[in-house]
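Many introductory courses stop at the sequence. We go one step further.
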Amino acid sequence: GGKDAIIVDADADFDAAVEGVAVSAFGFQGQKCSACSRAIVDERIYDKFLDRLKARVEKIKVGDPAENANMGAVINEGSMKSILEYIEIGRKDGRLLTGGGRATNAGEGYFLQPTVIADVPPKSRLEQEEVFGPVLAVTKARNYDHALEIANDTEFGLTGAVYTKSREKIDRAIQEFHVGNLYINRKCTGAIVGAHPFGGFNMSGTDSKSGGPDYLYLFTQGKSIGEKIT
């Protein structure tokens, strides 16, 4: 599983960050282990980011993908009920920005509104537990150090992304953002087999990578040979 975060720094390409967060959070109804379920935003741009993100998310059309909808139904009734329960938890811990319930105009099926909860505390359940649905928690960071601290403060470590123009901060993320798949100035989903071997740390995997040659070692048995030469 994952509790994947995208850090948005104060100097980020704003349009790219908003789009990257929205696509990462709500593509495939958020039912991907790599989906963005946390956006961690520098306090200097926090309010502006929320305004732009709200406008972008409210453009998402929910319904049958065969009819040009952007977001389909979640997998089953049990999933829908679990997601709705997490939304209620989020309402108590944070502030509902948009969405928050079933998409009643989307037709027959387990359709939910893409939901954004703002002002989510780092230690809250919505920030810590995998929802596996179209729910995004947004948390304010004092600075880049604080953002990295929040990003790493879960039991997961699958994917993550950073939006910043600072080479120094990019290099720090490479060293300090503890995830198996880290993306710089792009969305945190969409690993490509053979190009982005996929796998996470901690509760997000076994520290191995699928989609790369090293993964083949999992299907082999190592044998050590010692021979005394006389």
